[in-house]
């Protein structure tokens, strides 16, 4: 690849893009991967996140291999899973799904796993899994109904967005906050830098 090193984000998530931007990194292209995110029967949360991140990376890689401008770019994919014990919560699209998630999370601890998968220009796959433990306050039915009315839960793993109103539900968090939002920044930037991506390129005039 000639000229500047390029990076493709295999995601359409505005939260992941915003987090990368926060670290001074601007992807050259977005290539959301169309992958079935349904857990397999009996699949554990960690394994599910790892499998889906890899599947998204493979799908994204296929799309850039046929693009002359992006062939040979770094490609970054990620998948976030919210779990209570071994139970994987859905990415809520329906009111009933979100309500069930919030009732399950109310007053309890849960874990958020994000797997990050990086494909290097040489075609090597590098993967990391990050875990954060989160405890929610006990949610009153009024809390749940009002939060459902906000709509910010839609499409979010576990039926909530910690960077929004649901941040006020969090009693305690152990681990990476950005991981719960959808992309663990420390691990992602370390992964990119370790594979030779110029992570500080965009820091000049970032303020």
Keywords:
single chain; alpha/beta; Maf protein
Short structural description:
With 207 residues, the chain is an alpha/beta fold. It has helices at 14-22, 45-65, 95-105, 141-150, 177-181, 185-194, and strands at residues 7-9, 29-30, 74-84, 87-88, 109-119, 125-136, 170-174.
Structure, described:
- With 207 residues, this protein is α/β, with parallel strands linked by helices.
- It has a single domain (7-203), classed as Maf protein, CATH 3.90.950.10.
- Helix content is 32%, strand content 22%.
- The chain is built from 6 helices and 7 strands.
- Strands 1, 2, 3, 4, 5, 6 and 7 form a 7-stranded mixed beta sheet that branches.
- The longest helix has 21 residues, at 45-65.
- It starts with 6 loop residues before the first strand and ends in a 13-residue tail after the last helix.
- The model has no long low-confidence stretch (mean pLDDT 94).
Topology:
Layout: E1 7-9, H1 14-22, E2 29-30, H2 45-65, E3 74-84, E4 87-88, H3 95-105, E5 109-119, E6 125-136, H4 141-150, E7 170-174, H5 177-181, H6 185-194
Parallel strand pairs: 1-2, 1-3
Antiparallel strand pairs: 3-4, 3-5, 5-6, 6-7
What gross morphology would you assign? globular
Number of domains: 1
Percent range for β-strand residues: 15-25%
CATH C-level category:
Alpha Beta
Q: Regions with pLDDT < 50 over 5+ consecutive residues? A: none
Overall average residue pLDDT: 94
Main sheet makeup: 7 strands, mixed
């Amino acid at each position: 690849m000639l000229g500047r090193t390029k990076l493709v984000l295999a995601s359409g998530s505005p939260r992941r893009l915003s987090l990368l931007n926060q670290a001074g990194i601007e992807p050259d292209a977005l290539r959301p991967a169309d992958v079935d995110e349904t857990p397999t029967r009996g699949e554990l949360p960690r394994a599910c996140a790892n499998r889906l991140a890899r599947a998204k990376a493979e799908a994204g890689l296929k799309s850039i291999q046929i693009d002359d401008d992006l062939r040979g770019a770094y490609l970054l994919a990620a998948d976030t899973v919210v779990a209570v014990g071994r139970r994987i919560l859905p990415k809520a699209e329906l009111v009933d799904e979100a309500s069930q998630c919030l009732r399950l999370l109310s007053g309890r601890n849960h874990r958020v796993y994000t797997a990050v998968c990086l494909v290097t220009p040489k075609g090597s796959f590098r993967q990391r899994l990050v875990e954060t433990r989160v405890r929610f306050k006990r949610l009153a039915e009024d809390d749940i109904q009002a939060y459902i009315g906000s709509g910010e839960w839609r499409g979010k793993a576990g039926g909530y967005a910690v960077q929004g109103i649901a941040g006020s539900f969090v009693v305690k968090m152990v681990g990476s906050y950005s991981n719960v939002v959808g992309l663990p920044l420390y691990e992602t930037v370390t992964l990119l830098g370790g594979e030779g991506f110029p992570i500080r390129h965009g820091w000049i005039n970032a303020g």
